[in-house]
Amino acid sequence: MAAQRMAVMVALVGAVMPQPQFIPANQQFIRPFIPILGEDRDGPNLDGSYRFSYDSADGSTRSEVSQPTSPFTKEVRGSYSYTSPNGQLVTVNYVADENGYRAESPTGSIPQTPIHSLQQLQAAGPVFARNRQENRVNAEIRFNQQQLEQSQRTDFANDQQLRFNLLQRQRAAARLRQIGLSPALRPTSAIRPIPHPLLVRPQQTFGAFSG
């Protein structure tokens, strides 16, 4: 009897507990595929510069260009546009550099940043400032190290060229000694100048006296 009561309780609990809901595959949300109509890319290059732009089939566009402003900083400029759910075209132009991110919209509709995100950004301001300073210092160190390595490579190349020139002179002097000439008195390859025909005096000829 007790076993029957336990079986009934388990059945009731199983009936009361919520069952997982399964959505048929044909009813699941699938993000529509939006093809890219045009795309242009360049970079990233050795100096950190790059640019890209693309146009989508839904009318959205984006373009961005990054250029170094100094050995330690760079500037990013770009824009993007899309159609809002209410059918309005939204265009945003932005600039990101060492002074932060700034955006403006000629259509007057820049997406608003949530309040909690603004609070987090304000709280993280000192951390961002410290990170920017550390990045600047690290960039200066890397730049100075690269300059030093380049100078060392240039000095090494110049030293190797001087050694090569000295070795060539020593070999030339040894060849001259083998043929019995002094390196200091070796013949020159200078070509004797040809006299100008108008400046050469004609030789005077004398006829034979007849007896």
Automatic annotation (TrEMBL):
GO terms for molecular function: structural constituent of chitin-based larval cuticle. GO terms for cellular component: chitin-based extracellular matrix. The keyword Repeat does not apply. Keywords: Cuticle. InterPro entries: CHIT_BIND_RR_consensus, Cuticle_Struct_Prot, Insect_cuticle. The keyword Magnesium does not apply. Pfam families: Chitin_bind_4 (PF00379). This is Uncharacterized protein. It comes from Meganyctiphanes norvegica (Northern krill). The lineage of its organism: Eukaryota, Metazoa, Ecdysozoa, Arthropoda, Crustacea.
